[in-house]
Amino acid sequence: MIFGSDASGSLSCSSPPSRGCNTPDSDVSDRFEDSLSNTQHFLMCHIPITGKKLPTTAKDNFVEVDLEDLSEVNDSFLQECGISPPTLLQVAWLLLLQSYTGKQFVACDILGPDYSNGLLCLQYKLRPDEKIIDLLHNIQLYKDASAKPNLSIESICNTAIVSREINSHIQYTSLSAYEILLELRPFPNSPSAALRYRRSTISAVQAYRIGETYRTILKSILDLPAQNVSSIERLSSTDRKQIAEWNQRTFPVLKQKLHEAFSEKALDNPEAPAVTAWDGDLTYEELDAASSVLAQHIKTLAKQHQNKTSLVPFCFDKSKFAIITMLAILKSGSVCLPLSSVEQYRDALDLLPSIEGEVICVSESYANTFAGVSRQLLIVNSPLLYQLQRDGDYGKISDVGSDNAFIQIVSSGPGQRKAVMQSHSALYTGTLAQGLALQYYEHSRVLQNALYTDFVSTGEIFSSLLFNACLVIVPGQEYDDGLAAMINEKQVTHAFLPASVADCLRSKELTSLKSLILMQDPMSLCEIDDGGFNCEVLKAYGNPETSVLCTMSRDATTQNSVFRASIGASFAASVWVVNPTDGDELLPVGAVGELVIGGPTIADGYVKDDVEVTRFVVNPAWASDQMKAKCEKLFCTGMLVKYLDNGDGELAFCREMDSIGVITGRERFHRGREARGKPAFGGHF
Fold first, then answer.
1. Cβ–Cβ contacts within 10 Å for residue 90, how many?
2. pLDDT at 33 over 50
3. Rounded to whole angstroms, how far apart are CA atoms 357 and 310?
4. Are 641 and 570 in contact (CB under 8 A)?
5. Ramachandran region of residue 413, left (φ > 0), alpha (ψ -120 to 50) or beta?
């Protein structure tokens, strides 16, 4: 087998390695030197552990890694390529470490008598486009030069490799610095290996999965040594089956308009309280009637035609009139565009030029602000609704309109905006699933806390209304000591709050609150301390592209460091962990990769296609009959996570992807087809 320079020119050697090719490669040397002089890159090269003490009295255990069926291929491969057996198995271990840590810099200790101190650390920077055959040869050539005494074992790595042929005297009980020891069996006999691990921190199931991943990687190396590092198969059949089972729990697609579903619930229980707000209360019957007359008025102002869908911006402080207005816009067959300011309206004009001249619904407090912006400014207040209801022109609720219910303007970077299209179907499915997950019923009282420009507010509002629960609306966002008193006074049972305000409720007497759902960026959610809450504390994750929340964890306040990082398991969507540089590759359970979300709650996409290809994709290579993935469209979150080894499909947040590492959906899913969303609103935008 001849190997030579790859696309980056990393190797200049053109002769087979078995024939004495030892030409130094400056690029590889630099990578070794870089790894040796910057050991901080390896501080987190620890294979993931459970993060908690498991109930066991045994100090360690082992699991065999079956390599017998690879022996014939292995012998042929080694002879042809001139690679030593230890090098092959060590490279497979480095690739495994990359999978589980999600980092290019990997490190492990090699134990052997060839060095006086008997303990060395192999450190290497893996490059996605590096050929496997080149990697094998580089490790074999430079292993001795790169292996230096590991003076900070615990901070660099927690795994080691030992050959029992030359180190039979080493006992695992003396290797207290490691969580896992890869034990290689004698050569040149058929290759075999075992994983020795601490039972106090690694479960038997996790150890077995790691062994299966190692075997899968080794087989992929032998099958196709000419492939790139990024193309190595890492997902074992065991993990593939488990991930498929976890993702069969997605909610079915429910085709119904939000306002129609609300009106049905209003008929079920017309006298039930729908809204209790600082500016007045509404029953379901009153809310349905008020929104219907306002919908007819909006239709008249918008001069809506059968083949055109209007987009109606609205800007409100938290109020009962905001809820009436949202329902009215939807009932008119239009699409809601929540705004927080005139400046945001002007930003929206760049993305949605057709909104110029459309009716804008505002509260009294925003009337002067928007007076010079729109020719059709509709101030929604009590006098207007009284007049409309007095005239009695309820009209016919529109059965013609867009499939989309909301458009959310969100930031996509410094000075950049994008418009996310959220369909009725996605929002109805998601809000219904959210209400079921939180066990809403007719006596639930849900605090409406989020701003209307925050996608969380849509879930707060409609998941409550779809279960005949009551929305509790207070002015502003109360993040002080009065929050607990307000919750008790209003008999709130469920509250969505930023994680940063959790301390306001710590050690407070909460007489009614059953569930506190913490919403903020995942990093902040990971910093929640244990104790002091007199209610159930949950962590939830979602974004405008998933329409509503998509994962939820009930382990929010655990002292366990790993489970504190949990963002929960999916309750409506499907969640997948893929290779950050190749989205066509699913990663093993416990490996760090990009979170990709699919299922019925995914938004229709962005209004402008030039943004859509970067985050929305369809039909990746793994969405096959074997995975049974029902993923017409997936959203790439740009967030690195891993599956927790707790059997529930729960995810742990690791970190945001580096901006340099965030590449387009087209490139990440190069074997899939990019999502080409249907034209927004029939092409009117």
1. 23
2. no
3. 11
4. no
5. left
Is 393:376 a contact under the CB 8 Å cutoff?
Answer: no
pLDDT digits (tens, 9 = 90+) for 419-448: 999 999 999 999 999 999 999 999 999 999
Give the domain 573-685 fold: Luciferase; domain 3 (2.30.38)
Average of pLDDT values for 295-318? 79
User: Tokens 């790595």 map to which residue?
Assistant: 157
Domain boundaries, the chain: 22-234, 573-685
Which of these, 218, 239, 230, lies nearest to 126 by C-alpha position? 230
Residue 272: φ, ψ to 5°: -70, 145
What one-character DSSP code corresponds to residue 19?
G
Rounded to whole angstroms, the Cα distance separating 104 from 480 reads 44
Neighbour-count burial of 79, counting CB atoms closer than 10 A to its CB (0-12 exposed, 13-18 middle, 19+ buried): exposed
Closest residue by Cα to residue 292 from 378, 448, 427, 398: 398
Q: Which of 151, 164, 65, 176 is nearest to 111 (CA)?
A: 164
Tokens 């690879």: give the residue.
70
Long-range contacts (CB closer than 8 Å, 24 or more residues apart) made by 499-503:
499/524, 499/525, 499/527, 499/528, 499/539, 500/524, 502/528, 502/533, 502/537
d(CA 406, CA 422): 5
- Separation in Å, CA 641 to CA 214, 231, 507, 556: 20, 20, 32, 16
* Topology of the domain covering 22-234: Chloramphenicol Acetyltransferase (3.30.559)
Model pTM score: 0.83
Q: Helix, strand, or coil here: 68?
A: helix
Question: In Å, how far from its chain's centre is CA 419?
Answer: 20
